[in-house]
Amino acid sequence: MTHPVRDTIAALATAPGRGGVGVVRISGSGLAAFAQAITGRALRPRHAHYAAFVDADGAVIDQGLALYFPAPHSFTGEDVLELQGHGGPVVMKMLLTRCLELGARLAEPGEFTRRAFLNDKLDLAQAESVADLIDAGSEAAARSALRSLQGAFSHEISQLVEQLIGLRMLVEATLDFPEEEDVDFLEAADARGQLSGLQSQLQRVLATARQGSLLREGMHVVLVGQPNVGKSSLLNALAGGEVAIVTEIAGTTRDTVRESIVLDGVPLHVVDTAGLRETDDPVEKIGIARTWAAVEKADLVLLLIDQREGITELDRAILDRLPARLPRIHVHNKIDLSGEAPGRAEEDGHPLVRLSAKRGEGVDALRQALLDMVGWQGSDAGVFLARERHLDAIRRAASHLDAANHCWHGLELFAEELRLAQNALSSITGEFTADDLLGEIFGRFCIGK
Ligand code: GDP
Ligand code: ZN
Prior knowledge:
Blueprint: E1 9-12, E2 19-28, H1 31-39, E3 49-54, E4 60-69, E5 79-87, H2 89-101, E6 105-106, H3 111-118, H4 124-135, H5 139-149, H6 152-175, H7 182-188, H8 191-217, E7 219-224, H9 231-239, E8 246-249, E9 256-263, E10 266-272, H10 282-296, E11 300-306, H11 313-321, E12 328-333, H12 335-338, E13 343-347, E14 350-354, H13 363-374, H14 388-404, H15 411-429, H16 435-443
Parallel strand pairs: 1-6, 7-10, 7-11, 11-12, 12-14
Antiparallel strand pairs: 1-2, 2-5, 3-4, 4-5, 8-9, 9-10, 13-14
Helix pairs in contact: 4-5, 6-8, 6-15, 8-14, 14-15
Bound molecules: guanosine-5'-diphosphate (GDP) and zinc ion.
Zinc ion binds next to helix 9.
Protein name: tRNA modification GTPase MnmE
Subunit structure: Homodimer. Heterotetramer of two MnmE and two MnmG subunits.
Function: Exhibits a very high intrinsic GTPase hydrolysis rate. Involved in the addition of a carboxymethylaminomethyl (cmnm) group at the wobble position (U34) of certain tRNAs, forming tRNA-cmnm(5)s(2)U34.
């Protein structure tokens, strides 16, 4: 493959704002001269040089480290220059302006990673994992993103693709033989065994990818329950031991609507429905509309009730408005006041957990019930971070293999289904990927990545 020469791009690679160090990254061609103009000296490839960064008149803008990575041995596969200066917004802007004077333009979001992809430094799944690593919401998610970045996911996919190609070649060869010999030829190579082996491997990859997608997306939980039933206490109990509780204050001054906690590595986004009631207050109405919008995206409902009172009319009214497909866990709280034992049971066909949010008894049972409900296997070992796009491609490939399995007596169709399965899988690593999909994927990156 030949690659078109692309223009030179520059961006602040570190987070905007103040920091000990700020990095400006430049990618393009002919950067040796570019580096010479800024640092006043020739840079040795892949060596850290302590240098003054100067403007067109030779006045010093900043001083710091300059690193030059000539193509193709760089992140983007092009010449890359990194200037590490002092992380102040003004000084970084001056340095960036100097780069623009020298002919660079500001990079678009994700443009460095996009170039790395276009120059075959990374496949698409790896490129996506760069953004996922940066956005990782838990250590387990970060480890899994790194596994994808290192190619664990891509490797699984390309192995499957290779096996598919082997089977396709076998079928194509068979198609070239006279009719009566077909069966023997395929049988000799155990084509059926190969196909069913592929099918089960695909299911295994799908299961792992589902775990990865859970780590990436987390689960969206709606907490339903009357005032004072113990919702805030339960959230605190669930978050117990976790370092980070991110609290987003809603538009109303009255209540917290959303909290994110991490459960066994799985991000848990909890929406408190405290404000879900009839109201004329316009501000509160906005908050309630937002809450219902969040309910639309929910994976699961936690119905919290006072163990001594059971489900009330008000709970019913809210439950009636929730989509019927939403899985639900009933939580009977305040068992310390009634003397019930903590533990799991069932109610109205939904799992039930009895606990005391205040004392903590039974909270572990709820944690486990939540993780069971979304199918979390309990560890991120071997899990690679996956996106909905990947799950979708794997499912499509699986359905083409199922279709193929019904086509043993029409080998043209069989071969076609195998081809479609291969295309679906290849879309994960980006072998045949439309420009608009690339735009969508890289457009969500931060600038400078
Ligand atoms: P929310 O309005 O649903 O968020 O309820 P809170 O979490 O603010 O709790 C309301 C009151 O119930 C507080 O005084 C809590 O201490 C109390 N409470 C919450 N959970 C329990 C529990 O398991 N046992 C007992 N005895 N009190 C609880
Ligand atoms: Zn509360």
